[in-house]
Amino acid sequence: MADKVKAWKINLKSYPLDGPVKEYDVKGSMRSLLFHPGQELTVDETFDNAELAKRIKEAGDSIILDKDDMRRLRRAYAAMRSPQEDDLEFFRRIKEPEEVEVAEVTKPT
């Protein structure tokens, strides 16, 4: 039986807003956040974030992240300054993701 490891499940569903924009695009915002210039990413880190952004784009209503992916997302989160009120639910989903256990998967090198 495979070992279990901790992972994080993030809700990617859009949520309703008041005002001219009626829905918050969680996937689009999360993908953009991964390239926030405040992170001062290296080229290799940018490639890693691009791979995660692609997986977010292709995901359904949620995504399971391993510790490396969660570290990338939290680094982007930490670089963000002056969020708007409409962003708070989005950032809460990153700050307080659901913890889950998944079978350990060996990544190819």
Structure write-up:
The chain is an alpha+beta fold and 109 residues long. The protein has one domain. It has four helices and five strands, in the order βββααβααβ. The strands form two sheets. Strands 4-1-5 form a three-stranded antiparallel β-sheet. A hairpin with a 6-residue loop joins strand 2 and strand 3. Helix 1 runs antiparallel to helix 2. The protein is globular and about 50 Å long. The model has no long low-confidence stretch (mean pLDDT 92).
Low-confidence stretches: none
| Beta fraction | 15-25%
The topology string of helices and strands comes to EEEHHEHHE
Main sheet, how many strands, which sense, barrel?
3 strands, antiparallel
Quick one: overall form? Answer: globular
How are strands sequenced across the largest beta sheet?
4-1-5
Report, as a whole number of angstroms, the end-to-end distance. Answer: 23 Å
Q: What percentage of residues falls in helices of 4 or more residues?
A: 40-55%
Individual helix count: 4
Count of individual domains: 1
What's the rounded overall pLDDT mean?
92
- From the helix content, strand content and strand pairing, which structural class follows? alpha+beta
Give a short overview.
By secondary structure, the protein is an alpha+beta fold. Helices cover 41% and strands 20% of the residues. It has one domain.
